[in-house]
């Protein structure tokens, strides 16, 4: 691809990375509860899921998936139900910031949670199938271009995650009291629940 095309891709991509959504909200809340490093490590579950989606897009399998109404519906239902489950857990949670020992025990579970949340969101793979191809030059090697664009997306995603996690650390001082932490968790639960509802109503168009 031409250099100007790649330079246009970077800000457009980063705006997409920074868009508030379930995964970014989860990273922010994980940082508030367990610290910056556990939240960042856990977010690599999301990176792994996105890497698979980008590979599917590059290979053309994503188009096949979205050609199947049953497959699309199954992914959508699983993703929405998982969002509702996380929202339910957050609504009941009274978690305040905890120490690093507890955080270490949670990292594996948080990583799996990030992966499942990203993998169960068909909107993510729809973004890749609609967004990345716009910057691909059909006259040049397509797989190489997808590799460069996909790698850039993932690097910018880590930057965005870091920014949300830092904001979560900042929120610690405001939500350190159990009562405030409970209300913050419930606010996050509402946002995730609404996201789950939106996921149920989305279609392939």
Description:
The model is unreliable at 97-101 (pLDDT under 50). Helix content is 81%, strand content 0%. It is mainly alpha-helical and 205 residues long. The chain starts with a helix and ends with a helix. It has ten helices and no strands. The radius of gyration is 18 Å and the shape is globular.
Defining key terms:
single chain, 205 residues, mainly alpha, 81% helix, globular
Q: What is the N-to-C succession of helices and strands?
A: HHHHHHHHHH
Number of continuous helical runs: 10
Global structural class? mainly alpha
Helix share bin: over 70%
Instruction: Extract low-pLDDT stretches.
Output: 97-101
Q: What is the oligomer described by this structure?
A: single chain
Distance between the termini: 27 Å
Strand content: under 5%
- Report the mean per-residue pLDDT as an integer: 77
- From the spread of the alpha carbons, the general shape counts as globular
Largest sheet: none
What is the tally of beta strands? Answer: 0
Q: Radius of gyration over alpha carbons?
A: 18 Å
Give a short summary of the structure.
This protein has 205 residues and is mainly alpha-helical.
Reconstruct the topology from this structure.
Layout: H1 3-18, H2 22-34, H3 36-42, H4 44-59, H5 61-67, H6 69-92, H7 100-119, H8 122-131, H9 142-171, H10 178-201
Helix pairs in contact: 1-9, 2-3, 2-7, 2-9, 2-10, 3-7, 4-7, 4-8, 4-9, 6-10
